[in-house]
Amino acid sequence: MLKKNKELYRTLLFISDLLAIVSAWMAAYYLRFSSGLIPVYYPAASQGHIWFILLPVVAVIWGIIFRAFGLYGPRKIGSYIPEVRDIIKASSLALLLLVAVTFFLRRYALSRLAIAIFGGISVVFLAVERVSFREMLKSLRRKGYNIKNAVIVGTGPAAGELFERLEMHPDTGIKVLGFVACDSRTVGTTIKGAEVIGVYEDIRGIITGKGIDEVIMALGLEEHNRVADVLKSIGDEAVDIKVVPDIYELITLRGGVEDLDGIPIVSLRGTPLYGWNFVLKRVFDAVFAAAGMVITSPLMFVIAVIIKLTSPGPVFFRQERMSIGGDTFELLKFRSMRVNAEKDTGPVWAASGDPRRTPFGAFLRKTSLDELPQLLNVLKGEMSLVGPRPERPVFIKDFRKTIPRYMLRHKMKAGITGWAQVSGLRGNTDLRKRIEHDLYYIENWSLSLDLKIILLTVWRGFVNTHAY
Question: How far apart are CA 372 and CA 297, in angstroms?
Fold first, then answer.
């Protein structure tokens, strides 16, 4: 029955996607050729029969690509953003494949503008359709339809937290009827308000007696050796079996479960910058940095002239800093201190009233205008617009000894501005809090968060009381 439900779900979702794609295809044709909003210069491209002939090809391409991207698997819990992001990726690839197919089928002349319109509309239609479809399923589950009865094997923190999460999300369609323990002494007690209804040796009787559809194992590290025993006790009962990794508490910083040719691999630590995310962030950086260079170039020219006129030495200052993966690069800044400022002191942080600063340099540091040349570092790919601020390797050697998880901030490319900076943690502020903010940024990274930080940087101004 469960297998039939899953197949029905996939079939309905596929049909729903197909309707959205067909609607987008016809809407694109109407907007391009029949609405009168866009002039038609090549009548041959507007032949309606061509669009109907290619419609099955479009449906097949989108269906294959969506399946390859895992868009027909269950996604019951969490934000819709990851699914919409996958839809954008899959649709982009499908659109490229469609363009390639129509290129070889030269007898079908298609308007490139119409194809582009279809690409945009299809993403919107599919995203709206997917959200509506899943919201409808959630509504049905909240009303008691399509519910699966489940038991949780385990009585530790992982089991308790899992129960709480499932109770918070009734739309998952999973109803936990109780806990199954490894120790008979806990039978009859309650965990988070749910009863421990038996021990794993009796789980077959519990499954048949209570009509259990799903068994979720959430055993602790000390009970890991019981997994095989639990599976043996379940035997050939027709239930779904899921496992919450016993090392879930150790999973941090973009950790998760990956698949290697059918072998599940638990990642305890990862980086958000891979695949499409890497490409998108790089394009985002390049576009905004180039725009920033154009906008600020007159200001940078004036700053360069004033530096040259008010103090001897070069206009720019280069310093070794550390970025993603522990790699170092030369950070570029407008020079704000006298030449050889650390000759007598060695590497030290700037302090309030620092005598090494030039008069104009003090103004540059206070207003953060000395950081503008780092737009060049961004264009070269050495930095990002947003990310943890890069530090000097000579200081990092000490920081990593005294501050837990300090080096994890290098899982992301260094940035001109960051979550810590727009939160007021810049310059001579609590370093541990800055690290917490940097790790929060890495864990929750998205392009929308980058844009938010950039807007906050501009909105709150560049002047900072802790910038020396």
Answer: 9
- pLDDT exceeds cutoff 90 at 34: no
| Residues 385-412: tens digit of each pLDDT | 999 998 888 888 888 878 877 788 888 8
Q: How confident is the model at residue 46 (pLDDT cuts 50, 70, 90)?
A: low
> What mean pLDDT comes out for the span 309-329?
88
Same domain for 105 and 67, yes or no, is yes
In degrees rounded to 5, what are phi and psi of residue 197? -95, 0
Cα gap 405→399, rounded to integer Å: 10
Of 142, 171, 202, which one is at a domain's C-terminal end? 142
pLDDT tens for 434-447 read 888 888 888 888 88
- 431 and 359 in a single domain? The answer is yes
Q: Quick one: 432 and 305 in the same domain?
A: yes
Confidence of residue 271 (pLDDT cuts 50, 70, 90): low
- The whole-chain average pLDDT of the chain stands at 81
Domain of 170 in residue numbering reads as: 148-250
